Amino acid sequence: MTEKEIQVLEMIKKNPYLSQQDMAAQLNISRPTLANIISGLMKKGEIVGRAYILPEKDVIIVIGGANVDRKFHLNEAVQLGTSNPATTSISVGGVARNVAENLGRLSHSVKLITLMGKDQDATFIEETSGAYIDFELVDHLEEEKTGSYSAILDNEGELVLGLANMSIYNLLSPNVLRKHEIILLNSRCIIVDLNCPKETVEYLRDLAISRNILFTIVPVSSSKMKNMPNTLNGVSFFICNLDEAETYLNNRFEDMNDFMNAAQRLLEMGAENVVLTLGDKGVIVGSSLGIKHIEATKVNEVNDVTGAGDAFVGAMMHGVLVGELFEDAVRLGLYNASKTIESDYTVRTDLSIEELSNWRNS
């Protein structure tokens, strides 16, 4: 920015309602000159709208799924082809929403961009999550149903079958996001899950490149890998599990050496940082500093694995955003994932900055 543009921004920060005439007089320039400066600042995204509203600079934007999760916990070992006794629970979920809540509980300012229906599930999501996530950028569609996910979990808490009704996210196109482009351009970090169509992921990637914004891709499942961009150029962090990596790279990986090679291939495709999650075997991390294996944090008792991957992403990105070294941020993610597996909740309610600090210092 020019010196005059910086001066104008500082004046607006102090008094957003100052008239152009008063600003021009204080800067000793003509009013038309000031108008041109303000017009330029609006085009750059430094000012939003008339009243000189300054965009939020530290907000995290998360784009993707926000669902209602219905879980069926089997009382005994699964028996196919017959009725299985089970208990049921309902909660809010969706990869993007889960990541957003984890970050919100860690005191970050988080806005969610998604599509929902005008139904009870949408109301349930917003009322349940509103303390941690800003929903002002969400569009509600009259003819569509809010996304939902039903999980059948065995008597040890492992997933037997997952059923997803996510067709609404096919409508989450670049045109939906362009309405919020000024906010996106001024965000601190953009995180997208692969519920979004491929063209939307690529639009966000290109936008992040244009403003040097941290950009993170979080796959949802192997079937959603079709929504990945063809290259990972401009991707700051790519976080996936083994199945997703095998689908994307069209290869099988059997042992630790294979896992290391997979991370290397993802780096060669353009990602700045890669995390390949391996469940209880830990993670492979890769960056310009090299590739290494980090052990998983011990899980004392498996209660429910749902949300563990999203917990990892949320706490890892928290570490990145507060200035932790990449490997230390990954360890925060591993810890949060382990505690989420032990929890009854998709996003655990005892998560906080203080709790992470206590673990770090213990």
Automatic annotation (TrEMBL):
It comes from the Bacteria. PROSITE patterns: PFKB_KINASES_1, PFKB_KINASES_2. GO terms for molecular function: kinase activity. Pfam families: HTH_24, PfkB. Gene3D superfamilies: 3.40.1190.20, Winged helix-like DNA-binding domain superfamily/Winged helix DNA-binding domain. CDD domains: YeiC_kinase_like. This is Carbohydrate kinase. It comes from Ureibacillus manganicus DSM 26584. The lineage of its organism: Bacteria, Bacillati, Bacillota, Bacilli, Bacillales.
